[in-house]
Amino acid sequence: MKSCLNGATTMPYSLEEDIRVTCKIGFRGLEIWIGKLNEYLREKSLDELRALLSTYEVEVPALCAIGGFVFSSKEEFKARLLEMERLLKIAEEIKSNYIIVCAEGLGGLDLEKAKERYASRIGEVLDLCSSYRIQIALEWFHEIPVCLKIVDAIGDERLGLVVDVFHVYRGDGNIGNVELIPGDLIKHVHIDDCIDKPRDKLTDKDRVYPGLGVIPLVEFLRILDSKDYNGYLSVELFNQEYWKLNPEEIALRALRTLREVVERSGLKLE
After folding, report:
1. Could you give the number of structural domains in the chain?
2. What pLDDT tens digit does each residue of the chain (270 aa) get?
3. Fewest CB atoms within 10 Å of the CB: 2, 36, 150, 223?
4. Does some domain include residue 65?
5. Could you tell me the CATH number of the domain that includes residue 250?
6. CA 226 → CA 149, 183, 231, 258, distances in Å?
């Protein structure tokens, strides 16, 4: 498996800083936060971004994240499709692999109606992607069994999943449910940990460095290994206390703790 830094982990800092520290600290890849990407491109060109990534030899496995497709109005949905096409063109230019699309739960609908909605809306997003090399990876925020029913309803082999262990833990606490996911469906992984508090009270700000919380990450990583997952483990944190540190220190701690938990799992990290 390969190490990756998610731009949320260093949220106060710029895309340029993320690229620099990814290289300096030794992460294999950088998952670019789309907000930072947009900010960068307000002042600089895509050519400059390509050159910067090349200079630092940084791989970009994914752009994170865009949502608002499933339960938006028709007008909003059209606007989101236009934004997606812009991102697809950028991702293609910087040789990224995936654009992460945020799922939106059931939107207050029963499961059957929600399945129809997902199949229709995400199906259109996938059709838009057909002209590009880039794939869509859906990030689900709730229980895995429901997620798999949604994916089955979409019924498109072009769709993959992002598995975020924090969302799995907060969803129903059953890390073993990752076993239910077909291995070829897992395209990207967000790895993180969280403090010990009731799961229904957990929020993103409660995430901590891998191995410093209560999520059974060794079990999680061994399940991924059993499915022959050899992609990126992207450290995605939203801890505001960490954000007070300089970006090099944030990234250094992220990589060190990631390595430690991977080693405890008996695995290797590139």
Report:
1. 1
2. 999 999 999 999 999 999 999 999 999 999 999 999 999 999 999 999 999 999 999 999 999 999 999 999 999 999 999 999 999 999 999 999 999 999 999 999 999 999 999 999 999 999 999 999 999 999 999 999 999 999 999 999 989 999 999 999 999 999 999 999 999 999 999 999 999 999 999 999 999 999 999 999 999 999 999 999 999 999 999 999 999 999 999 999 999 999 999 999 999 998
3. 2
4. yes
5. 3.20.20.150
6. 22, 9, 13, 19
